[in-house]
Specification:
Number of helices: 16
Number of domains: 4
Radius of gyration: 29 Å
Helix content: 25-40%
């Protein structure tokens, strides 16, 4: 499981704004209003227990001007200073302000000059808290996967960290925002159109959380050949692994020729030869996806990479493919997928439905043996198609070979007409 991000786990330069909890007559939390009351109460107790506020602030390395500013007008406090003050109060036997108590009263968190992230959302007149942040959900895993697919985490010249997402399908942006709200709460974001695509980017604090709390790397993921952070490598739950793979299929994948294909561009030279080791040169992201698929018993393999000319950068780039094929493989994986793009989801579903329908027709043979010619007559398909279906069902352990028979070579092609099969 991925650990929750609690108040103490946030970047120390995070600013905390507290609020007042509003309950209805039935005791349900219906709203949280921004309020300075709790912060002022904490500071008043701090000054009361400090024999000399100036010397205590110096000892704790807290700006001495912070105390009068909060008592007069300041509405937020830097987390680094808040934790020092709480530690001081606890040592002086004032233990009312526990981390759990304060987390329930948080109205917003933000960077110094950034917009607020309110860690709650209002649904049907009731407040649903999102703090501590929990990523052990399908929505949470998709939020963590986005920076590794079509998303990014970049740092500007003024040290501002920005997390965002670029894709031409607006439905994927809507899904991302829904997942972000389900995981973080009422989060601020902006959108713009870039050439033929759309970009959604979030407040700077989110980028800091990804980097400092979750272990993500800043920079170009293709050039740096990044790997999954430890929190994603450790996934074991099939539904969460399926959510991660779904995001990659939506962003970087396609389904064609009965195969799910996830492709990633590699920004380095690849020496293709007869003894070429596909796995050795595969990007780390695809290697990590393959390891997660192995955990849920879904076989995958690397296809031979191919190159193309990037006209904008005037350089040759390579595209690497991780492929998942076979009826049983795709059927097992599809149980855990949450693909948003209708076209991709329908293609996979139609493929599975078609094969399942054909397998159901095989029940016509019951316990009897059958040959390729029987399949050709039953389905009204060519001999070659019938042989392909038999191989597919064999790999899926749905039928088994009973008699090899005599293979016949016709015009250089091997025929399986004499082989006999039976339903498993």
């Amino acid at each position: 499981m991925i650990k929750q991000i609690k108040l103490k786990d946030l970047p120390k330069e995070t600013y905390i704004t507290f609020g007042k909890l509003i309950y209805d007559s039935k005791g349900n939390l219906v709203d949280i209003k921004e309020s300075r009351e709790l912060l002022i109460e904490i500071i008043q107790n701090f000054t009361r227990l400090s024999k000399n506020v100036k010397s205590v602030c110096k000892e704790l390395r807290i700006p001495r001007t912070l105390i009068p500013k909060i008592l007069n007008y300041k509405r937020k406090i830097r987390l680094e200073y808040l934790l020092k003050i709480l530690d001081f109060l606890e040592k002086n036997k004032l233990q009312k302000y526990t981390i759990g108590y304060l987390e329930k009263h948080i109205y917003a968190i933000s960077s110094l000059h950034g917009r607020d992230l309110k860690p709650f959302i209002k649904i049907n007149g009731k407040i649903e808290r999102k703090f501590p942040f929990n990523f052990n959900t399908i929505e949470g895993i998709k939020c963590l996967t986005v920076p590794l697919s079509d998303g990014y985490i970049l740092k500007s010249d003024d040290e501002y960290i920005r997390a965002g997402y670029t894709n031409s399908d607006i439905a994927l942006h809507e899904d991302l925002i829904k997942n972000m709200r389900a995981t973080f709460g009422d989060i601020s974001y902006s959108q713009r159109k870039i050439r033929a695509a759309y970009e959604t980017y979030f407040i700077g604090l989110l980028g800091k959380i990804y980097v400092e709390c979750l272990g993500f790397k800043i920079g170009n993921k293709v050039k740096n050949d990044v790997s999954f952070p430890a929190c994603l490598k450790s996934l074991e739950n099939p539904n969460l692994i399926g959510a991660l793979v779904s995001q990659f299929i939506d962003d970087e994948g396609h389904f064609a020729n009965d195969t799910i294909d996830i492709c990633i561009v590699v920004d380095k030279d690849i020496p293709i030869s007869n003894n070429f080791d596909r796995q050795a040169y595969a990007p780390n992201l695809l290697k990590d996806i393959k390891k997660l698929l192995d955990k849920i018993n879904v076989n995958s393999h690397f296809r031979q990479p191919h190159h193309y000319m990037d006209k904008r950068q005037n350089k040759i780039k390579w595209t690497y493919h991780l492929q998942i094929n076979g009826f049983s493989n795709i059927k097992n994986l599809y149980l855990y997928l949450n693909i948003i793009k209708d076209v991709k989801r329908r293609r996979i579903q139609n493929y599975l439905n078609r094969l399942q329908e054909m397998y159901n027709k095989l029940n016509y043979f019951n316990d009897r043996l059958f040959q390729v010619s029987d399949i050709t007559f039953l389905f009204r398909i060519s001999r070659q198609s019938a042989e392909n279906y038999i191989r597919t069902f064999q790999r899926a352990n749905l039928i088994k070979l009973i008699e090899k028979g005599k293979y016949i070579c016709k015009n250089g092609a091997v025929s399986y007409e004499k082989a006999k099969y039976k339903l498993v």
